[in-house]
Amino acid sequence: MKCYVTGNSPYARKVRVATLETGLYDEVEWQMLTREERAEIIPGINPLGKVPVAVLDSGEVLYDSPVICAYVDSLNDGPKLIPEAGPARWQVLTLEALGDGLGEAVIATSQEDQRPGEKRSQGVVDRQKGKVTSALTVLNAKAGHFRDLPSMGEIAVACALGYMEYREVVPGWSDTYANLGSWYTGILKRRSFIQSAPD
């Protein structure tokens, strides 16, 4: 499998963490792209023009991160990142969706904040920051039940938080959301998160 990623995408990081956690990292041919390379190469592979995108040995293309991570987990002979059945499966997938949604809101906030003054919309920033705050509140309440061996849900949440810190969207968030902040400090010590930290 060849996987196209960038150094700071939280969704590309999800895939990298998933392969590290399952011991499959070295079986992937990683294509680390600059922003310019992504704009040039990826639209010919993924019509949405986004990373991550994976090309299997068969030539089949997989996008985006939930699909690629599920595929990686299907190759995993160890503890599953996504439970195969039952209520636990839907809980993990729902947590993954919440983590991905937090990432989307953080990206939208950051992009809007970077617009020139006359083009920047405070309304957009406020709406997206409202989503971030709501997600952080829910995650803070759930953090006490997060698993020590992370599922795909916890991985998605941690990658979104990492990007939020990288872009400084919510300075001091770990003091306001102390349960979540404490859990996040712990998961960052895992080799998979150290090795995949944003550039």
List keywords for this structure.
199 residues, alpha+beta, 2 domains, 4-stranded mixed β-sheet
Tell me what you see in this structure.
- The chain is an alpha+beta fold and 199 residues long.
- It has two domains: 2-74, Glutaredoxin; 87-190, Glutathione S-transferase Yfyf (Class Pi), Chain A, domain 2.
- Helices cover 56% and strands 8% of the residues.
- It contains nine helices and four strands; from the N terminus they run E-H-E-H-E-E-H-H-H-H-H-H-H.
- It has helices spanning 10-21, 35-41, 65-74, 87-113, 122-142, 152-166, 173-176, 178-187, 191-195; strands at residues 2-6, 29-33, 53-55, 61-62.
- It has a four-stranded mixed beta sheet.
- A hairpin with a 5-residue loop joins strand 3 (53-55) and strand 4 (61-62).
- Helix 1 packs parallel to helix 3, helix 4 (87-113) runs antiparallel to helix 5 and helix 5 packs across helix 8.
- The longest helix is centred in the middle third of the chain and has 27 residues, at 87-113.
- It starts with a strand and ends with a helix.
